Protein 1
Amino acid sequence: MELAVGLLGLAVLLADLWIAPASRRILGWGAAAVLTCVLVFGLGSLAPQSGMGFSGLYVVDPLARFFKAFFLLSGVVVLLMTVEYADQLAVGLSEFFALTLFAVTGMLFAASANDLTMMFVSLELITVTFYVLNSFQRGKLASIEAGVKYLILGALASAFMVFGIALIFGSANTTQFSELALRQRELSGSRIFLTGLTLVLVGLGFKIAAFPFHGWAPDVYQGSPAPATALLAIGSKAAGFVLLLRLLFGAVPEITAEWHRLLGALAVLSLLYGSLCAIPQRSVKRLMGYSSIANAGYLLLGVAVVSPAGSVAVLYYLGAYCFAVLAVFTVLCVMMNSSDTDDMADFAGLGMRSPVLAGVMTLALASLAGVPPLAGFIGKFLILRAVIAAGATHPGYYGLAAVAVIGAVISLYYYFGIVRMMYWGGEPLERLAISVTPGAGIALLLCVAGIVYLGIAPNGLLQLSADAVAGIQPAAASAFKPTGH
Amino acid sequence: MTPGLNHYLVVSGLLFSLGLLGVLGRRNLLIIYMGLELMLNAGNLALVSFSRFNGNLNGQVMVFFTITVAAAEVAVGLALIVALYRKRQTAHVEDLTTLKF
């Protein structure tokens, strides 16, 4: 599957030679179509087997399948988004498609990583691709600056990760997650091992943009081309979380249980920091950067409860977050085609110019804010329920739940700032109606369907998430039943 | 006296700290980049020495991956810094002020 996606990327690069520059959008359509085929057929053929490959480096289990489907789906939407955004990317449209595909390949590998080496290599495939994607609009200083900032901090995170892996390897004499799990009791006393683990977590914290390692997110989100930002917000964060889940619960569950306080504190800090800083923002992409920090806080909260219910909530939340963020960025791509800025003032009167776009944007933002019938609400609800359930053993969790609720209220305020701008923001700067091309139309339809469906009928994804988590936390999985069962 | 595992680890730790100091303290992008490479190589040295003294070759394999990744990173990174320099005629971090509040 990874090979298929990687080869597709190379094929796009080759096909570029024979296609006239004016009609290179076809490549995007083709790549999206093939990726959909990989999603449908590849996943179907993968379904029955479950096992390891390459002497334990690579694992295929329900968790890996869940995330592979997730990454392929976001890959398809991002490709469609790029077709829409093509006019803004001055040169090298097909390279952008190819790089997107390479990043998705890295994410697919990350979903299956069962070894620190594999984890490092797949993360680097993602990161190095993003250095280029972020700075793709070479003519714009903001884009290059975003690329350089991501480069320096990304390289710093990988340096920490390499050193951490070295220390873990030195103390445990293995890099495989399953072997680490067997020896975690003796290792939990080794200071070298714990230092190494901390350093690796620093590297992963950078990927998910959690509190002390969040500094890059707003700048990079604002400066990068919109499709790259979307992939960064979803793919890169989800890749960080799948590795975090595998490492914390698959390899060292006992140490994780001791570290729940630290994880909880990081979660709360990211949540508050992201929410509070998002309030005064005028650039929608920058606002999404802060909102991404806040969302990393929610997701970390699900990790910090150290229970299968929490991990299930994390997976569900990621699914809901993915559709909403993709919808927001698709609308942004369509909007930026006409104006090339993402300032909130451009959204003034969008309700009049294009009721469809404004409606989709409202729906997506409402889902992000956690308004009841939508997917985001179920995600937040599951996380809160897991946190409160954990409160029975450690009362401190009630405090975390309170902060989560406060964060949700603040997020309601800043997300609805955009909604207010769209409907009651005064006269639009231009009166022209905005046309939606078929590509963006399909992407938007997909996202809206996802947001509404996951909100109304959550059981399907819940079951999938529960199956996925049962693979890495088998001991307690029987204790958990999704709602309605 | 033959150098043992601890000696190698101390050197590697020193290299790592030196690199980190360079990243945090210097203002020129190229020097920061050198610091980052120093940190990566500190990790490599630790991996190789653990590998040698534990008699497990996996660490050396990991080093090959790290070197490859670092080379790719340098290629992309230097290209980016050159692109920035062409645009702004500077490679100092204080001048990266387009994106802020």
Protein 2
Amino acid sequence: MSERTLYDKVWDRHAVQTLPNGQDQLFIGTHLIHEVTSPQPFSELRERGVDVAFPKRNVATTDHIIPTDPATRDERPLEDENAEQMLSALEHNTEQSGITFYGLNSDRQGIAHVMGPDVGATQPGTTIVCGDSHTATHGAFGAVAFGIGTSQVRDVLASGCVAADKSDVRRIEVTGDLPDGTVAKDVILKIIGELGVDGGVGYTYEYGGETIEAMAMEARMAVCNMSIEGGARIGYINPDETTYEYLRGREFVPEGEAFAERTAYWESVRSDADAVYDDEVQVDVDGLAPMVTWGTTPGQVTEVDQPVPAPEDLPEAEREAARTAQDHTEVTPGESMVGHPIDVAFIGTCTNGRASDFRQAAAVVEGNEVADDVRALAVPGSTTVKQTLEDEGVDKVFETAGWEWREAGCSMCLAMNDDALRGNERCASSSNRNYVGRQGSKDGRTFLMSPAMVAAAAVEGAVADVREFDTEGAL
Amino acid sequence: MEAPDAPDDMRVTRVAGTGVAVRGDDIDTDQIIPARFLKSTTWEGLDEFAFYDNRRDDNDELTGEHPFDRPEHQGASILVVNENFGCGSSREHAPRALRRWGIEAIVGESFAEIFADNCKSLGMVAAETDAETVSELQTFVEEHPDAGLEVDVAAERVVYNGREVEVSVTETMREALVQGIWDTTTLMRDALDETREVARELPYVEEVE
């Protein structure tokens, strides 16, 4: 059969039956579990007297609520009583159910969406869910991966399946050479800026084209990760040699002949050359400049050297929201974001907490001290990432320049641990959401940008243009 | 597939009650319930946290200005919102906080997908309609907080002020609510044999025999 997208093929291979309401019951190949959205489902399973149907299809870790400060990391019980309860529940639940758990002391612990690729649990042609909206990340491998609610976590545990509606597919063709100083984060922010934060509702995004094909896996993950900020629950990229080479040798990936067989399956799920899409969009990145958000949604974004739009210059439907956002962020319309002061610099998260993100940032950090009065946090996305970087000495580069080098976790992306903005602090952040209150203070201000841009802001104490720094071709 | 017999109390065919409007596009789930209130292993107490920060001043005191705090909207069960409501985090705590506050149906211009899915999981209605209809409804519930509204799920309409307006509820949500099969755990668990068959055919699933 031809004319099918990867999404069609993977969906069809995992469909168990049509449910009476018309949804498909979809088998889930990999369910990633963390401490925030799993305690209730496990309790509910016990109340219903049901066990976990496919324990080996589940992999758990802890990421959202754990301390990242090395000084308190290993203290149990955790200082935060609620956090301790959640972590203990996960330890107990995974042990009872026979589910692999990468806990605080595991060298595989990490943000679920960093850990999955680290261990090779994330593979092409699979279905992946997690009680977390950034599950879209795993689409970078050609998986059909999406975030689910907590009741759906219960469904997956009990049945190995979710009830799902098939969406339309929009092909986003990205062309052009990424200019110096720009990276995947800039591409996805541009896409969200163009298509809107709800542009993807009802769609699965298939990213492709020469720019995407030229990207390494970690860059592809950054793109797919923020599909949800563009309204698309799923964003994927067709797997190719870059994907297969990344996966080779990781512990969940078979070796030798079995690897060749698995690769044949991965290759078979690629969208057909004549695949039919419900919508197609072209995005050109020639001449792209580093992107930075000026408002309180990821779609309120502009190139760093361009003026922040005045609300009255925006389409009428966007004006009021822009005014409210600019009141909150205190940016000046008509001026570029360069020079806008910041108090905190944060590099990490499931968007930009991978080894290459820190290496790129290190090109700016090296020899450039953090500005006075700026708190700078470097939080690797996983313990694997942290170890890799420490082996390369990247941690020392950051520490020498005045950064705090932390243990892995979600940290200040959503501040469910101690890593939070205080009062109305302004944060240059490599995370994915600049919503009001997102980083733990309702008066805090978040400016989203690439990791290297965050590093540049940390040096200047204000939003800066990373192209002004000598990064020696690192980005 | 035949619909199973659902108990009558699982069927959601209509929601009737008074309304409350929360205006604004792209209201994310961090606004609906900030992340710091997700630190619990149960669902208890979530109603207190609905729109927590938006309802409070710099001293963490209720301002009384938020629609959820206005005396005239206490007891409301139908929430009227704008575009892309519930975007962002997948936290089911968001619709649960609204539900525990008293909301049983939400009418809006559009909903983020995970949020709508989560509403369905709770037997909550998420009905869409055009911007003008939403705007009229919002103004109406603000001006007539005591007036009764009815959301008819099967007929996809809202009845208020002696008039009927069309809304749309996606077919799969509508059927799940009307048939009372929005809790899918048992339904899908019952197909474990069929599920194993699908799993066995997948080259990457090795442990299923």
